[in-house]
Amino acid sequence: MFFLVLQFLLAFSHTTLGSIRVAESYWTLKPNELVVDEDVGKYGSEVLVPLMCGDAFEGQDIIWRRESGEELKEQGNRILVTVEERQGGRYTCYSRDGSYLNYTLVLVQWPYKKIIKETSEKGYVHCSTKNYSGSFQCSWTWDEKRAGKVVLIKAVRSHNGGNISCSLNSSGHSITCQDHEYCPYAEELEHINLTIYFRSNYVVETYYLRFQISDIVRPDMVNIRKKNNTLELQYPDTWNIPFSYFPLTFQVKEIRCRKESDCNCSNRKSSRVNLTQDQHWPLKGGVTVCVRAQDDLCSSSWSEWTQYKCVKEKNKKRTRKNKRKRFQKEE
Question: Potential cystine with 148: which of 33, 47, 200, 314 (Cβ 3.0-4.6 Å)?
Fold first, then answer.
């Protein structure tokens, strides 16, 4: 259908009706969904968009209606409809006896970014993965003033296309994708090209990202286990094995904080920040140890901080002594 619509458009590419010009650029989002790629977001702008009911209905007596039920004055298999500003619409064609034939949903490509919010740290769409399994997640924040939804997701490798599937999570705020041909033991030569189409009413916004799995990997939090006078820094359970092939670098800092509320690993500075691959760290009394991890072979994101507070032994003795006095007093 839309191949013939394109031919119809080319025939009118330099045509105007009065002061309204025919749209020069549009594309198919999904079957029966046409996106006008024009700057019709400006106040008072108008373009003419060509529609066709279908190949099989050429030469037939056809009537058109908007979704409101209003019948258009234009008739026939091929017509031109006026799109004003951001006002697209659903146009349905019927035979003269009222039988349903087909429809076209006309949308407008928005040249701005309004449906989702931009953040200073993550941009509009943020993608990450916790390991090299070929799975990754992307999330965003809706603008509360617009009722937005995801209408299409495309994810392909830059050259061979690959086999990547994506699904919208139940919250509507993120997607989960899986590259079914990804191999964690091979060098990643191609990029993933991800395109997400968001829609609000009759407006469409397109967001495009290009990355490799190694660009977006972020390990889960480090596990810390006390053993005698040493802390064992353990790899996250979700990280790839063997660890010798997927090594992590640990960033360790020690802070002293008088109040529990002050022990914030992200905000507090220490006199020294240590980078190590050693999974053992000596205990020091009265010190809070903060640990996070990063892939040792690429400069991707650090994990969130894991915190372990070492309590001085004398404090423990004082606590036991106080408990003993309180018990005697109760007797």
Answer: 200
Helix (H) or strand (E) segment spanning residue 324: helix 313-330
Tens digits of residue pLDDT in 208-243: 999 999 999 999 999 999 998 899 999 999 999 999
39: tokens are 């700057």
Number of domains in the chain: 3
**Euclidean distance between CA atoms 297 and 184, whole angstroms:** 13
What are the phi and psi torsion angles at 241 (to 5°)? -120, 155
Distance of alpha carbon 281 from its chain centroid, rounded? 37
Exposed, middle or buried by CB within 10 Å (0-12, 13-18, 19+), for 330? exposed
Q: For residue 248, what is the enclosing H or E element?
A: strand 248-255
* Distance separating alpha carbons of residues 256 and 253, to the nearest angstrom: 10
| Distance, first Cα to last Cα, the chain | 92
State how far the alpha carbon of 29 is from the alpha carbons of 108, 153, 163, 169, 319, in Å.
11, 10, 20, 21, 68
Per the domain annotation, does 116 fall within a domain? no
Q: What is the pLDDT of residues 12-55, one digit of tens each?
A: 444 444 556 666 778 999 999 999 986 655 555 788 899 999 99
Domain containing residue 308? 223-315
**Minimal CA–CA distance to 260: which of 222, 227, 288, 230?**
288
DSSP track, 111-167: SS--SB--BTTTBSSEEEBSSSSSEEEEE--B-TTS-EEEEEEEEEETTTB--EEEE
CA 202 and chain centroid, separation: 21
Inter-residue contact 2 to 34 (CB < 8 Å): yes
Q: Which helix (H) or strand (E) holds 6?
A: helix 2-11
From the list 136, 223, 220, the residue with the least C-alpha distance to 182 is 136
Q: Do 62 and 134 lie in a common domain? A: no
Give the domain CATH number at 157: 2.60.40.10
pLDDT in tens, 270-282: 667 899 999 999 9
